[in-house]
Amino acid sequence: MKTFAYPLLLVAATALLAGCGGGDPVPAAPSSGEPAPVPAAAAAAGSTAPGVPCGDVTGTGGAKTAVVAHGQVDCAAATELLKDYFAKLTPADANDADGPGPIVLGEWTCGSGAGDPVTACSTEDGRQVEGTRG
Fold first, then answer.
1. Nearest alpha-carbon partner for 129 in 59, 61, 63, 62
2. What does the alpha-carbon distance between residue 129 and residue 82 come to, in Å, rounded to a whole number?
3. Which residues are bridge partners to 104 per DSSP?
4. DSSP annotation of 5
5. Which of 16, 25, 112, 116 is the most exposed place for a label (fewest CB within 10 A)?
6. pLDDT tens digit string along 4-49?
């Protein structure tokens, strides 16, 4: 992935972690050897799926690419975005030593690193779409 995606991911991860520092402390484990209770919010966060699988599209060179939508992105929009991205790539983009992208498609910016099987697209409001070559 080009360097534009890493700062976006770092900012998102930092924002998520920043919310984890406050709140009530977890009570110590009882002396009977039973495990400490897990707060309901932490249990719910751990069970949340990281994204919604949306099927496959044909990527660069005809490669099958699995589409995953994150945030407020429906599958139809996610698959159309990656189709548009792959259609817009030129052979020079696909063979760039740094990888293809960043390419702007409306409010989305997409790209990947050289040899990276993941194409990442994101918006300024935190929506994300990933395409992973199979």
1. 59
2. 8
3. 109
4. H
5. 25
6. 444 343 334 333 334 444 444 444 444 444 444 433 333 333 333 4
